[in-house]
Amino acid sequence: MATSKRPSDADSPDISDDAGDDRPTSFGVHKPVDHLVISFPGAPDAAQARAALSAHGIADEDLHAIDDREMVELVERDLKRASPLAAIGQEINLLRSHGELAGRGYHFLVVKAKNDEQAREIAEIARRNRAERAQYYGHFIIEEMLEPEGGRPQVAESPHRGLDTHPKPPLPR
After folding, report:
1. Are 164 and 154 within 8 A, CB to CB?
2. Which end of the chain is least crowded, N or C, by CB within 10 Å?
């Protein structure tokens, strides 16, 4: 869930070693405050959403695409360096959820939001472009911006049970 760019590839996050990693963290886990992390079933959906967000006026430097392979690498690295304190909140559960989705071929956009209203607009544009999940990272809470689709049960959250938006195959459309 990187928010920086490689000089050679503007659409890829910087997956450097830990020493060169300048991503903001909470207890060793990446926490992109004031950003939405949005997951899509495939690359075409993420690309379409990115184009729609650009057309809506989101600046290119505030839009970061992460493909499935890159997300798996980022998740593995963050899990290795996570503090046990990270398990108190939902950061570890979200990290694992992103890793599971990436393992299923999901692609991600990390999008900076100026405020709550813009975060809602971004989430709505993402939903219209087949996003399945969108989390808005605040300083103290992580807000799920997309309601679970009908027919999917919600469960109580805990570090052992995970999030109620745990990865599932997409519902038939």
Report:
1. yes
2. C
C-alpha to C-alpha distance for 81 and 133, rounded to whole angstroms: 25
DSSP labels for 78-127? HHHH--GGGGGSSHHHHHHHHHHHHHTT-EEEEEE-SSHHHHHHHHHHHH
Quick count: other Cβ atoms within 10 Å of Cβ 90?
A: 19
Phi, psi (deg, nearest 5) at residue 72: -60, -45
Q: Give 10-residue mean pLDDT values along the chain (173 residues).
A: 38 40 49 89 97 97 96 87 65 84 96 96 97 90 81 49 49 43
Q: Which residue in 101, 82, 127 sits closest to 41, CA to CA?
A: 101
What is the pTM for the complete model shown?
0.72
- Cβ distance 166 to 90 under 8 Å? no
Reported as half-sphere exposure (CB side, CA atoms, 13 A), residue 73 has a value of: 13
Give pLDDT, residue 22.
53
Tokens of residue 94, six digits? 């979200």
Location of structure tokens 């459309």: 173
Helix 116-128 to helix 43-55 angle (10° resolution) is 130
**How is residue 72 annotated by DSSP?**
H
Report the pLDDT value the prediction gives residue 158, as an integer from 0 to 100. 46
